[in-house]
Amino acid sequence: MTRPVVRLALDAMGGDNAPDSVVSGADLVRQRFPTAQFLFVGDEARVRPLVERHPGLAQVATYRHTTEIVTNDAKPSAALRGGKNSSMRLAINAVQEGLADGVISAGNTGALMAMAKLVLKTAPGIDRPAIVASFPTKRGASVMLDLGANLECDARNLVQFAIMGEAFARTVMGTAKPTVGLLNVGSEDQKGHEELRTAHAALRENKLDLSFHGFVEGDDITKGTVDVVVTDGFTGNVALKTAEGTAQFFSGLMRQAFSGSLGAKLGYLFAKPALGRLRERIDPRRYNGAMLLGLNGIVVKSHGGTDAFGFSNALGAAIEMIANDVATKIQDELQRLGSDLLDTTPPKPKTAAV
Amino acid sequence: MTRPVVRLALDAMGGDNAPDSVVSGADLVRQRFPTAQFLFVGDEARVRPLVERHPGLAQVATYRHTTEIVTNDAKPSAALRGGKNSSMRLAINAVQEGLADGVISAGNTGALMAMAKLVLKTAPGIDRPAIVASFPTKRGASVMLDLGANLECDARNLVQFAIMGEAFARTVMGTAKPTVGLLNVGSEDQKGHEELRTAHAALRENKLDLSFHGFVEGDDITKGTVDVVVTDGFTGNVALKTAEGTAQFFSGLMRQAFSGSLGAKLGYLFAKPALGRLRERIDPRRYNGAMLLGLNGIVVKSHGGTDAFGFSNALGAAIEMIANDVATKIQDELQRLGSDLLDTTPPKPKTAAV
Predict the structure, then answer these.
(1) Taking CA A171 as the corner, what is the angle to CA A316 and CA A248, rounded to the nearest 5 degrees?
(2) Contact A70/A89 with Cβ under 8 angstroms?
(3) CATH code of the domain in which B90 resides
(4) Which candidate, A35, A52, A47, places its Cα nearest to that of A11?
(5) Is the Cβ pair B267, A270 closer than 8 Å?
(6) Which chain B residues contact residue A183 at CB under 8 A?
(7) Measured between CB atoms, which of A151, A219, A264 is closest to B244?
(8) Which residue of A has its CA nearest to B238?
(9) pLDDT 10s per residue in chain A (354 long)?
(10) Cα distance between residue B29 and residue A247, in whole Å
(11) Contacts with B187 from chain A: Cβ below 8 Å
(12) Considering B104, B120, B136, which residue would you say is the last residue of a domain?
């Protein structure tokens, strides 16, 4: 099976370790996806010499030069106004101009989301784009959305998120028949906000080829009770950061425990390979990359502090999304959906998290 | 300093290990609080023989006999109607009748909250009671509220939760000058729902003796950035369960890692004392007990599956709340609060989580 050509626009200047980690990450992912092509957007005088250290990468690289950047502390509105020639904006423009199939940046999240929405526009049938990411669970890995693009969501948004999340899990995560759950404060049908109960009822009697589990609770997230956790952007953002914080708290406690006494240090030496495998299994770099679903084009946000390995994983997710045509699959799922489900509630304008 | 007499009504039949864990937990806490008195509500034929195994406890124990119980799967509405002679209801009644200063149960959460609200009523100046609990953090321990009594909250509710939580941290946790944070998706002032921004502005320019930190995010919860995390009951419930789930996930991974190979098993033996101290530090039994703040009386919910040690810690928290007169301190704080802050938004009726 030959893989299709995938063209990615890279914000070469975004992120704490840019442009080095961007270039090295691209070289790493190229070894997994030999048909990928890279458009590096940024200061060519800095980026090109880095790329040319990797002859294989240099062969599939093109450049778009700009010295302007979006700073990490720029407000989204200011970035929209003043960042028209920034590496981030020009990388997004490349998708809109048909020069790339997707864009990736490790820069300012709020600016990326605002620019991507403005330039690429929401896909047909989708009221609001949502941010999705994957994370480790007891059973393997699951995904959650929305993680902060929409602070308040109605039932219609949640149902659309369920469809987008399911298509994402199927294509990018490779889950054969992803199960979908709605995040709530209890698992009984009558629990929660009205919007949640309406979405629950719609998904329960759905005509989709979608395996709906019902409501799930906070502890189901890392249990892996479902493959796709659907929630509003406020709750999803808090839940993801709470899980990350708790994981960091535990890692810190472990480090402390193993450096506390001679016995503990010896114990660490013996257990090192096993602990190494554990660390690898939950390595945040393996789960790097938050995708903005529901736009006309693939947009991926890498963690700003990640290294080449982490960046390559976010790139890999972007490539999977393009190669598997996730956007079209989401459209197909929406088409299959009964119009009654989509037309019950008109979309409301809401505040964005980013 | 002599401690005041504290009289507790115990739902002797609530929880998976009742009445054994209830009686043994009472005996454990009695050794820490010699002035505590216990009213055991439940099947006297089963409870009394257990109590009399502990001569010290038997001297400070009284009984209220009933054979009726609230089952774990009972709906709150059904428990309200059909549970009038249950051990849970009669224990709550004892507070209302002035026979006890507080009540504790490890039984059905929803039923306990519904019955307690009905019987004890909301305290003056409080629109809605909130559930608060403590948890371990990098810096020690913090508290969060609301954890599920109110799914949606307005700015006025959040400000009241801040006051109640601060008083709780000061008196029960022993934090000299507790810092308070509002849970949000970003720490900048302009982020989040309107209700959050209104509460933020009110707390920022507050006339209270309250140390307001501003907005905090999900990862700040276990970082211990603030001593009191204030949020609505939906978000609080999801965040707490997400943190618990992540902690369980990590513990499971550790167990797996240490049983995977001979080296890992040896390592475990060497590191056992250090790992034991870690386990002790984050032992959920140490943080057992969710308090319903804002009622005319102290109501504590113990985890249903806890043992005597866990139950004794929930009892200890209840005793601290009574001995320190948290309810009066919350009233005092509300009195000190400018009326402009409390009267801006009228309370709205909302769905309860329990």
Answers:
(1) 55
(2) yes
(3) 3.40.718.10
(4) A47
(5) yes
(6) 238
(7) A219
(8) A218
(9) 456 799 999 999 999 999 999 999 999 999 999 999 999 999 999 999 999 999 999 999 999 999 999 998 898 999 999 999 999 999 999 999 999 999 999 999 889 999 999 999 998 888 899 999 999 999 999 999 999 888 889 999 999 999 999 988 988 888 999 999 999 998 777 778 899 999 999 898 866 678 999 999 999 999 999 999 999 999 999 999 999 999 999 888 888 888 878 888 888 888 888 888 888 888 888 888 899 999 999 999 999 989 999 999 999 999 989 998 888 888 887 776 644 454 444 444 444 444
(10) 32
(11) none
(12) B120
Same domain, B41 and B163: no
Q: Are residues A156 and A95 in the same domain?
A: no
Kindly state whether residue A315 falls inside one of the protein's structural domains.
no
> Rounded to whole angstroms, what are the CA distances from B248 to A171, B237, B252, B288?
29, 16, 6, 16
Q: Give dist(CA A14, CA A28) in Å, integer.
A: 18
Select the residue of B238, B254, B258 nearest A239 (Cβ to Cβ).
B238
A277 vs B contacts (CB less than 8 Å): 257, 260
Nearest by CB to residue A257, choosing from B250, B264, B278, is B278
Domain count, chain B: 2
Of B75, B105, B120, the last residue of a domain is B120
| CB atoms B243 and A246 under 8 Å | yes
Residues A200, A226, single domain; the answer is yes
Chain B interface test: which of A234, A254, A258 (most B C-beta within 10 Å): A234
ipTM entry: 0.87
**CA-CA distance, B71 to B13, in Å (whole number)?**
10
Q: Domain range holding A225? A: 125-293+326-354
Does some domain include residue B315?
no
Residues of A within 8 A of B257 (CB-CB) are 271, 274-275, 277-278
Q: Cβ separation of A253 and B282 shorter than 8 Å?
A: yes
Same domain, yes or no: B27 and B129: no
